[in-house]
Amino acid sequence: MTKLKIGIVGCGVGGMAAALALARKGCAVTLLEAFEQPRPVGSGLLLQPTGLAALRALRLEDAVRAAGAPVQELIGHDSHGRRVMALDYADWRPGAHGVGIHRAALFDALHAPLAPAGVEVVTGARITRLEDAARPVLHDEAGRSFGPFDIVLVADGSASTLRGALKPRARAPVYPWGAVWTNIADPDDRFAGALRQVYHRAEVMCGALPVGLGPDGEENCTAVFWSVPVADMDAFLAGDFARWRDQRLAPLWPGLAQALAGRNDWAGFSRAIYRDVSVGRWDVGACALIGDAAHGTSPQLGQGANLALMDAAELAERLAATPSPAALKGWQADRRRHVGLYQLASKALTPLFQSRGWFWPAVRTFGFTPMSRLPGIKQLGVLLLTGTLRLGRFPRITRP
Questions:
Q1: Of residues 184, 47, 62, the one with CA closest to residue 103
Q2: pLDDT tens-digit readout, 10-57
Q3: SS3 sequence of the chain
Q4: In CATH, what number is assigned to the domain containing residue 312?
Q5: What does the pLDDT look like over 350-369, one tens digit per residue?
Q6: What is the pLDDT of residue 381?
Q7: What is d(CA 111, CA 94) in angstroms, rounded to the nearest whole number?
Q8: Quick check: is 178 in a domain?
C-alpha cells in the first residue's frame, strides 16, 4: 500500500480498530482523542461471530476470547414467566457462540498494540473543526492543527461533534430509553453461558451478560443492566438503591436481586444513552464516518461494536487494494448494505421492548413471540443475532 497519511478522530472501538488495521497495512496513522487519558465507556458487550472474524484479522481474537466469556444463547422472559425470545447459536452453526466481554477488556486489547504498530496517539485533542474535505486538516479547541491528511476517518461515536460538518442533514436523536449498567461477581457461574433478559411490559428490560474478566482483572464477572427512560435517569440514580433492588428488581428476577445483596448504593453503576443515527452516504471527499458516528442505533440487536470492527477491517482491505480516497465510496456502499439491515431491524424491534403503554407488549406477546418460533423466522432471528444477515457476499476478511 502507498503510505497514506490518515487521521482518525476518536479512540473508541471503531477508531482503534481502524488505526491498527491501517497501520499494519503500511499507512501513517494519527489517532486523535479528546480525553487526556483514553478510557472505555460502559460495561459489557456481546461480540458476535462477525466481530470475532474482524478481530481475527487484527490478530486479537485469541486475546479477546481469553478475556471474555462464551455465550451460547439469548434467552428472554416477560414478568409473567412467558418465553419471549430463545435464540441458540447452534442453530446457525454447531459449536458456534458469541463472546461476552467487558468494554475495558476490549479497549485494552485494541489499545495495547497501537504504539507497537506505529500509530501516533495524540490525547487531549478535542477536534472541533475540519477544513477542506478534499485534503483535510483537523483543528482542536486549543487551536492546534493536524494534517493535512490523505484520508480522515471520523470515529467519535454516536454523539459525534464532526458529523454535522460532513453531513449537515444527518440526524441523531437520542432514544427515549437508556440503561444503567454495573458488574457483579459470579463465582458460581449462575449466569454463565447465556445473555438472559427479563421484560416488564415494554417499560423495563433487565439483563445479565457474562463477560469474563472485569475492569480490574477480576474473574467470572457478569454485566448487569436495567433500562431507564433518559428523562428519568438522574432521578432514578438519586433514588433509594435498596428499595429499587428489593421492590422492583426482586419481583422480576429474584436471583439477580440476590446477587446485588451486598450493594448499598449506586456506586459502580454507569449510564448508557443511545442515538438513532441516520446520515445517508458516509463519505465526503477524502473523509468518512465510521462506527457509531456513521450508523449508531438502539442496542436491541447488540451489534454496535461488531459493526464498527467490521467497518475497520473491511476498510483496511479496500485501501490495500486501492490506496486512495476513491476506495471510500465502494467501502461505504458495501458496508451500508450490511449495516442498513441492522438499523432497520433495530428500529422495528425497539418499540416491542422499550416503550410505554400496552400496545407494543401485546404485539410482542401475541404476534412477535409466536412467529419468532417458526422455522424460517427463527433462522432469520439467528442470522440477525450472529451478525451474518447481509445483502451480498461477505469479504474474506470478515467472513465468520
A1: 47
A2: 999 999 999 999 999 999 999 999 988 877 767 899 999 999 999 999
A3: CCCCEEEEECCCHHHHHHHHHHHHCCCEEEEECCCCCCCCCCCEEEECHHHHHHHHHCCCHHHHHHHCEEEEEEEEEECCCCEEEEEEHHHCCCCCCEEEEEHHHHHHHHHCCCCCCCCEEECCCCEEEEECCCCCEEEECCCCEECCCCEEEECCCCCCCCHHHHCCCCECCECCEEEEEEEEECCCCCCCEEEEEEEECCCEEEEEEEEECCCCCCCCEEEEEEEEEHHHHHHHHCCCHHHHHHHHHHHHCHHHHHHCCCCCCCCCCEEECCECCECCCCEECCEEECCHHHHCCCHHHCCHHHHHHHHHHHHHHHHHHCCCCCHHHHHHHHHHHHHHHHHHHHHHHHHHHCCCCCHHHHHHHHHHHHHHCCHHHHHHHHHHHHCCCCCCCCCHHHCC
A4: 3.50.50.60
A5: 999 999 999 999 998 888 88
A6: 87
A7: 32
A8: no
The amino acid that residue 279 corresponds to is V
Q: Which domain holds residue 32?
A: 5-173+275-398
Is 190 inside any structural domain? no
The residue assigned the cell 489499545 is: 111
Query: Would you say residue 215 has pLDDT above 80?
Result: yes
Q: What value, to the nearest 5°, has the Cα angle with vertex 388 and ends 385 and 392?
A: 145
Residue 2's pLDDT band, with cuts at 50, 70 and 90, is: low
In a 13 Å sphere around the CA of 126, the CA atoms on its Cβ side amount to: 6
Give me the number of domains the chain comprises: 1
In a domain, 349, yes or no: yes
Is 149 among the domain residues? yes
